[in-house]
Amino acid sequence: MCYSIPGKVIAVKAGRAIIDYFGEKREAHTDTEGVEVGDFVLAQGGVVVETVPDGAAGEILSSWQETFERLKARDLELSNVKPPKEGVSEDIAAIMERVLEGETLTKDEMLRVLQTENSSDTQLVTFTANLIRSKEQGNSACVHGIIEFSNNCSLDCAYCGIGKSNIDLTRYRLSTEEIIKSAEQAVKTKGFKALVLQSGEDAYYTTDKLKEIIASIKKRVKVMIALSIGDRGIDDYKALYEAGARGALMRFETSNEGLYSALHSSPLKERLDTINALKDMGYLVMTGSLFGLPGQSDEDIVDDMLLTKEIAPEMFSSGPFIPHPSTELGKSGMEALTLNKALRILALTRLIDKKGSILITTAFEKLFGVEGTRRALLSGGNSMMVNLTPYPYSALYSIYPGKGSASELGKRIEFVITLLMELGRSPSEISVRGAE
Ligand code: 5AD
């Protein structure tokens, strides 16, 4: 992001560098040739994207030090407030106590936390998650940009507004040049260091075309590129990795096989195999599920969290389902997910994966607004996305209704940065996983 700051490499081993940021240690994959101990580097999305000459690094760091210290102090102030006691259920208090002592939550305990309807319980749970985030992850926040380059999709997932049978939707495709330009601009003028290129499953963009797009972007600017393009063959993903893609965003959507099959045209196993294959290929995987789906039980949600943890992604990217009126699921009446429950899901994710990077999805922001997003950042979340899809296409990428952001890009970026900094977060993202 605009505020990326250089860190000093203090160790390099097996393709990974340990980087020091004002005394905080982070780990990142070394994507740049010849990263050595003593170098100053910029890292994003878990990948070193650029080395910075010593002189320039020194200048940036001295101008940042004061802000960095101020943000850190603010985070500590917010995360060390007195925990709520009044009205908290005894067993919830005991569970949180155990988590803070380093114990692993049982599935029953997770379910209990998920299902409590007592708002004091929710307060304590989210407080605990925020405290753990602050202790284990510090105040760094990851801000990725996302470019939705095509809303054409050959699938028909029951929840998704861009599924092929939605005949009311105007379809668009960005040209190769438009995609490259958008990415280049995002990096050069807005300072993004990590971009997600997303589309429906659209065979128009052949693997050769995507290779060309990735390679051209990487030639023009230093950036971490993640793909969110759905299922492609292993060989295709391998070729895209070789072209320079490093991240892959692919959710498993739900861990309940029956529910998965009811919503998709292929089985869950296929999706999980792809996710695991992507990991094996070296992709930094972002994954997770949808929560609040009709037919999904609380047990399913707990299983989803545990499955995400088992996959050990670079980033947890689960988010709420928002009914879309043009879809099968949009027509079925369902109980709306409450903000408190959504916050407990985020918090539980933090409680079971202390060092994880946890995304507050754009769907979360849409559903619960600014206040919801602010509370999510104080409930274990530590990562955000900014939609960079050029106007007028952004409004057409309607996986859920009203998805396109109304505000112009500059304002949207400022909103995210201001929100993060008000809460003492440093949008200076480094690695997604803290160094052990
Ligand atoms: N509400 C929320 N998220 C949705 N997605 C698709 N449709 C919806 C919806 N109605 C999510 C899916 C997919 C991602 C790209 O968008 O989880 O993986």
Quick overview of this protein structure:
The chain is an alpha/beta fold and 436 residues long. Helix content is 43%, strand content 16%. The protein has helices at residues 54-79, 90-100, 107-115, 119-137, 176-190, 207-220, 234-243, 257-263, 268-281, 298-311, 328-331, 339-352, 362-377, 409-422; strands at 7-13, 16-21, 24-30, 40-44, 47-52, 142-150, 194-199, 224-228, 247-249, 284-287, 290-291, 315-316, 319-320, 359-360, 383-387.
Low-confidence stretches: 430-436
The CATH architecture of the largest domain can be given as Alpha-Beta Barrel
| CATH class descriptor of the largest domain | Alpha Beta
Average pLDDT over all residues: 91
Query: Considering the protein shown, what is the CATH homologous superfamily of the largest domain?
Result: Aldolase class I
Radius of gyration: 21 Å
- Which hetero compounds are present in the coordinates? 5'-deoxyadenosine
**Form type:** globular
Give the proportion of residues in helices.
Answer: 40-55%
Query: For the largest beta sheet, what order do the strands appear in spatially?
Result: 12-10-9-8-7-6-15-14
| Beta-strand proportion | 15-25%
The total strand number stands at 15
**How far is the N terminus from the C terminus?**
24 Å
Order of helices and strands: EEEEEHHHHEHEHEHEHHEEHEEHHEHEH
What does this structure look like?
Helix 10 (298-311) packs parallel to helix 12 and helix 12 (339-352) packs across helix 13. The chain folds into two domains: 7-73, SH3 type barrels; 136-427, Alpha-Beta Barrel (TIM Barrel), CATH 3.20.20.70. The two termini are 24 Å apart. It is built from 14 helices and 15 strands. The strands form three sheets. The protein has an eight-stranded parallel beta sheet with strand order 12-10-9-8-7-6-15-14. The chain has a five-stranded mixed beta barrel with strand order 1-2-3-5-4. Strands 11-13 form a two-stranded parallel ribbon. It is globular. 43% of the residues lie in helices and 16% in strands. It has helices at 54-79, 90-100, 107-115, 119-137, 176-190, 207-220, 234-243, 257-263, 268-281, 298-311, 328-331, 339-352, 362-377, 409-422, and strands spanning 7-13, 16-21, 24-30, 40-44, 47-52, 142-150, 194-199, 224-228, 247-249, 284-287, 290-291, 315-316, 319-320, 359-360, 383-387. Helix 5 (176-190) links the parallel strand 6 and strand 7. It is α/β, with parallel strands linked by helices and 436 residues long.
